[in-house]
Amino acid sequence: MKASFILAVGLTWVSAAMGSRCKPSSVSSSVSSVSSPPVSSTVSSVSSVSSASSSASASATCSGNFIVDGDFSDNKLPPAWTVSGTGNAEVNPNCYAHGVSCAHLETGPTSVAISQVVTTVSGTIYDISFSYFILAASKNPTLTVLQDGVVVETIQLNVGPTHTWIQAPVVQVTATGTQTTISFSVNAVPGGEGNIQLANIGMCAYS
User: Fold this and answer.
1) Is-contact 189 140, C-beta < 8 A?
2) Where is the signal peptide (predicted)?
3) Fold of the domain built from segment(s) 62-206
4) Confidence at 144, pLDDT banded by 50, 70, 90
5) Which of 25, 41, 66, 172 is deepest in the core (most CB within 10 A)?
6) C-alpha gyration radius of the chain
């Protein structure tokens, strides 16, 4: 009788010990799996998708060149380019490298621009690329890129290195019609000066 009582008590103690040892382990594992995805990573992924939708996909290819005489090899601006403003605009031969010509834009108190009407497809995204060379800059002149008269890029000419060719950041635009006017304008204030060269102007399209 005493032996069976001791055996029963022993079995009860072993069962309780095993239950208390296993139970916390399973609760801890379940809590860990529920709380593992951090809120911040979910917000970050949504944000990155949203920002990517406003520009061309990283996997898309930009091809073609819709600018006529972007290397200024005709050695004259019209008829490919239209000149406006009160400054001076002309083509300089062999001013870039390896015989490549460039456009020379110089203005005093106002502005001078060259522009071209490009055949486009409405809704299509285009990349505009070009190089520029600062000959002189005083009193904060700017080089602006315009789409249909609206400024889409502004470059401060007084903060860049002079007398060296600079590859400008790519300017991305979305066409709103079958014709798009692309302009490059040098702008100066009274008493100031903007004097630059432009070369290798290109415009490709994403499809």
Assistant:
1) yes
2) 1-19
3) Jelly Rolls (2.60.120)
4) very high
5) 66
6) 33
Average pLDDT of span 40-48: 29
Q: Name the one residue in this structure whose structure tokens are 């409405």.
A: 122
- Domain residue ranges of the chain, discontinuous segments joined by +: 2-52, 62-206
- Residues, the chain, total? 207
Report the C-alpha gap between 171 and 142 in whole angstroms.
16
Residue 206 burial by CB count (10 A; 0-12/13-18/19+): exposed, middle or buried? middle
**pLDDT tens, 98-141?**
678 999 999 988 999 999 999 999 999 999 999 999 999 999 99
Q: Which two tokens stand for residue 46?
A: 């949504």
Whose CA is closest to 107, among 1, 191, 8, 49? 191
C-alpha–C-alpha distance, residues 17 and 13, integer Å: 6
The answer to whether 88 touches 106, Cβ cutoff 8 Å, is: yes
**Residue 67: CB atoms within 10 Å:** 21
